[in-house]
Amino acid sequence: MMRTMTSTAHLPANPPRLYRNSSGRLIGGVAGALADHLGMSRRVVRAAFLVLAFCGGLGLLLYGAFWIVLPQAPYGKPEGAIRTAAQYVGAALAAAFVLLLNMHTLPLGWWFLPSVLACFGVALLWRQASETDRERWRRLSRSSLSASAGDRIGALRVAAGVSLVLAGGGFILARAGISAVGVGLAAMLITVVGIGLITGPWWLKLVRDLSDERRERIRNEERADIAAHLHDSVLQTLALIQRNASSPREVARLARSQERELRSKLYGGGVPDGRFAAALHAAAAEVEDTYAITVDVVVVGDRALDARLDALVAATREALVNAAKHAGVAGVSVYAEVADPVVEVFVRDRGAGFDPDRIDPTRQGIRGSIVGRLARHGGTATIRSAPGDGTEVRLRMESA
Amino acid sequence: MTAANPNRPRLVLVDDHGMFRAGVRAEIGAAVDIVGEAASVAEAVAVIGSTRPDVVLLDVHLPDGGGPAVIPAVLPATPETRFLALSVSDAAEDVIAVIRAGARGYVTKTISGPDLVDAIRRVADGDVVFSPRLAGFVLDAFRDSDPGPARSADPELDQLTPREQEVLRLLARGYSYREIAAELFISIKTVETHASNVLRKLQLSSRHQLTRWAAERRIL
Lengths: 400, 220
Prior knowledge:
heterodimer, A: alpha+beta, Heat Shock Protein 90, 5-stranded mixed beta sheet, 5 strands, disordered N terminus, B: alpha/beta, Rossmann fold, Arc Repressor Mutant, subunit A, 6-stranded parallel beta sheet, 10 helices, 6 strands
């Protein structure tokens, strides 16, 4: 069931979204992703990266950046990647060759190799990190300016950034004099805006992908939850109903019990445990299950359970059992009203009824379990019944 | 009133489940005259407008808006039509919403065939149908004696009289109008008057708790 559900989630993306392609990739699947997205041949994109790699290592940097930023395609198995050791060695040699070739023309000169290695290390860390780590880093990197007062790392980072900017400004002032400041600031501004323009879309995309991913995950979890619930309850009940098809009483009991469970799952949540209304509903449910009758419960008001209300619930249960056993009806109704000093419960059926004065004195049901139990806790029970006219048991308890 | 025979009211059935409509038709088709069916708000508005039935049996939940959307759309054109709401959810917010939109009663989908016919006849006769559950909801919603800061122009609407509370309590206990009349030593007509007064208060009261209470109370 689960499998069919997830496979229906394949939606044709039009145009293809920018995902790293795990099928048919050579290194990270970056070139494939760009080629699919732009509708170009993969060879052309790979050749472009290669050419750019010789232009001051730009191709390498770009490839690395894409590799880090682009999300993995959500479907499909990784395949076609470099597998054998020989291929790894070949790729490493090629990379080293490109680097060495670039060494002299690089803008950073001999600083280039260490920087690349550092970038490589960071990329490695990023790839190895768990999703929660990455999420935390992303949040930290985004929230420095919008950081709340409680975010000490963010505040620290802002402070460090400000002092660096001030130090840099002071350095320029001290070394180059006031006239160079304008030019320097302009250059810096242009650079910052340029970097923002180049990388802005990627950050936006990253954020959007993250929320997409989260939404998809939540939806999948909900689906799994519902599927599990359906399997555990509804399917089991349906199977039981088929096996008990010859017994209408059993079928009704199963259906009612399932209905109650679904109801509490769909509309429940408003009945807190440990309170009178919940206890009354539970007692009614138990009688429904045991005696295959329908108990309609209406409760007005609610209150926390105490010993007296426990006794009231137990007496209600006993009255329901009596109705289920002797009234000969399919349904009993319960109305409970929780007012300030008095809690009242009415259990009513429209069944056979009886003459209350003529109960067998040896029968404990009414005398002991209902009247006696309530009396011990300061409550009263009155029974109104007549043969053929149904029965109403009225239970009354004053709160302490 | 278009009905020549009040014992055989003309009925339109609005429910988006075809199987449920077929079941109701089979169960009560002999006792009432089912003149139309609809599965959505748009269909319901069209069918009710063309057939002008005595009673509309209206599902609270419909795909394009539900019972509360149907009533205001057709009531101006067919003021003589009465609405009996029917729901499987029993959630207080649904019930209160459809009653406040103008339904004259509320029953659950588990109601027996004869009881449903009885409820339809009573609504057709101009009566109000309170299921025990609806009576309990109303008692609960009006329990708080302080109607709150949002007072209406007519404070009468925000309170139930002691007699109305008595009638509602008996309704919640499952008593019929006849039994209530006997219990309280009043005529059945008086019981009906109390019930329709309660319905009017439920529909017109501006008690701010009413909606909030219904929204908070998501219980079966």
